[in-house]
Design goal:
By secondary structure, the chain is mainly α. 86% of the residues lie in helices and 0% in strands. The termini are far apart.
């Protein structure tokens, strides 16, 4: 094989990989959009963002206040 044939073959392989990748990405997005997974993921993210996680100092203050109340 001469050099031009090798270059042409490599370019054709690169183009076909690019097309296959594009098709797979579109299929993935179509699958997500056509299912309820996007709704479930949004609900999970919303739940995580609204969940109040106490900081360590707040927890220590609450524990100390509880101990004081129980001693009184």
């Amino acid at each position: 094989m001469d050099t031009l044939a090798i270059i042409a073959r490599n370019e054709a392989m690169r183009q076909s990989r690019k097309i296959i990748k594009k098709i797979l990405i579109y299929r993935l997005f179509y699958w997500i959009a056509s299912s309820n997974y996007d709704v479930i993921l949004l609900a999970m993210v919303e739940n995580w963002s609204t969940k109040a996680t106490p900081r360590r100092n707040d927890t220590n203050i609450n524990l100390q206040a509880t101990k004081k109340k129980s001693n009184e």
